[in-house]
Amino acid sequence: MLRVVEAFSGIGSQAKALENLYIDHKILCTVDWDINAIIAYDLIHNGKQNLEKYEKYNKDKLLDILSKYTLSRDGKKKLEFKNLKKYNEEFLRSLYAAIDRTNNLVSITDVKGIDLPNDIDLLTYSFPCQDLSVAGYWHGNKGGIDRNANNRSGMLWEVERILLERQELKLELPKMLLMENVSNILAARNMENFNDWQNSLSKLGYYNEVFTLNASNFGIPQKRVRTYMLSVLCKTKKERINVEKFFFENNLERHFFGKKMKKLENFIKIDYSNNIYKKEANMAQANYTSSRIDIYNDNVKILENGKVRDIIVPTVTTKQDRNPNSGVIDYFVGNKEKCQYRFLTPRECFLLMGFEEKDYNILINNQMYTMGNNVIFSNERLYKLAGNSIVVNVLEEIFKQVEYINNNILIEEKTRSKLDIFKEKYKKVVNYNYGYDED
Description:
Largest sheet: 6 strands, mixed
Order of helices and strands: EHEHHHHEHHEHEEHHHHEEEEHHEEHHH
Distance between the termini: 27 Å
CATH topology of the largest domain: Rossmann fold
Mean pLDDT: 90
Shape: globular
CATH architecture of the largest domain: 3-Layer(aba) Sandwich
Oligomer: single chain
Structural class: alpha/beta
Number of helices: 17
């Protein structure tokens, strides 16, 4: 069984990929402070909540419990207690249930090395990209992953802190680590800091393999280029040699020639005889303004002569009503106050990230009010949940390698560890070599 910790877990692309591959696994815990993502993750991976178990908690008790966590309603800043009190009791109960059911440790800044379970095979960490991305740079986010930047992308160094705390306490380190972020992490501005991070991991005993992949090479018609780093803890020279050899022969960037890409028409919902798709299309249609005419003129046209074009769309981001975006779709409803086109719907964005309609439907079917007339899964939040996730299909190929390494290369270390325990126990009685290399 692959034992996994998902840090910066979002809606659980990692868990989804493992489920799709039928890999025997267990998500030991998650780490995420965004209240919308916390509930979405729980619904997608654990199904509809049964809140009867939590009915004994009234609002005051729920506030008392939840106030002990560092939560966020936008993934950017801490949710203050005075604002937490504004949420209705049903929502607070659902939030607590989600934290409980996913064993969520919530904010990475509060997680201590001792809080993580032992015997972790894989820890994934897709830390925030806002201060690394080109768009972020345009908006003045120039701190990148500087250690002293005190920004969202700087959450990377919280992972280092946790690993060092475990080392100091002589606790087991995760056997493998998987990083995902924007490819701009390799830009000149960020390279010194990224090398610093790799060096820190090397000192802990990890071998790091860095590769940049495009979702369009993995069956998804989306140009989404992201950088990944798979770090493998090598405790012997032999393991390191075997890991290096494996990546030389199987590096996804150099040697993966891609899956047959699905046609975009499989992801775009233009059958408006379906009332649900029709309603979602209406909601993705913006009011007519001059700036939105520019959006139409400047971006990819997904529809041509009433049919979805066989193209690759630009990157799905956290917002579609923007310029540039992931493409526009002609949509005429006879209302001159509306643009005669629409954006991608949140459903379409989820599909383009490798999730299924059933995953999206469970969110919509469990819609709830948070405060007043505000709902948790508004279009704005759904776009953000999709745009912040990882393309599931790419992760599937990476996890095939993770499983191979865990079962065929690191298995030797598991056997070796048992022998070490045996040797230590009987070293005063038995005085001969047990038949394995000391390196």
